């Protein structure tokens, strides 16, 4: 079996789509995280954080995108999909990613405090779980991190 070819140009493009979603979150005064799920070179789901808008602690970009992708595919198993997200998934999102069997996760900015794709812990490749996701970190990292830093600097300025 040969390893899949990772097209870094596609990663750059799809992370741009996730960044567009993160900007939507920013404009809605949500933590600016965006996610897209691609399959066979096409986006099948796009979402941004909507925790405040929906008054739902689980309304992270990844969770909403997983729900959309499952609907688009007609199956909760997201085989042959790649999740692109601007910030490293938290433990909740990483759990959902594993359960949805997402084979590959690409993220922009790491999260040293709560990242569950290798920074604070690695649930995406935890040996005891029944699925492991391949991880590509740091795609368009400066743009992803800059948006988060700008958002939180503005939030601190409001206090």
Number of helices: 5
Low-pLDDT residue intervals, each spanning 5 or more residues: none
Rough outline: globular
Helix content: 40-55%
Strand count, sense and barrel status of the largest sheet are: 5 strands, mixed
Provide the structure class.
alpha/beta
Strand content: 15-25%
Explain the overall architecture:
The chain is an alpha/beta fold and 159 residues long. The chain is built from five helices and five strands. Helix 1 (8-27) runs parallel beside helix 5 (141-158). It is globular. The mean pLDDT is 94.
Question: Helices and strands in order, then pairings?
Answer:
Elements: H1 8-27, E1 34-39, E2 42-48, H2 51-54, H3 61-73, E3 81-87, H4 91-99, E4 104-109, E5 134-137, H5 141-158
Parallel strand pairs: 3-4, 4-5
Antiparallel strand pairs: 1-2, 1-3
Defining key terms:
159 residues; alpha/beta; 5 helices
Quick overview of this protein structure:
It contains five helices and five strands, in the order H-E-E-H-H-E-H-E-E-H. Helix 1 runs parallel beside helix 5.
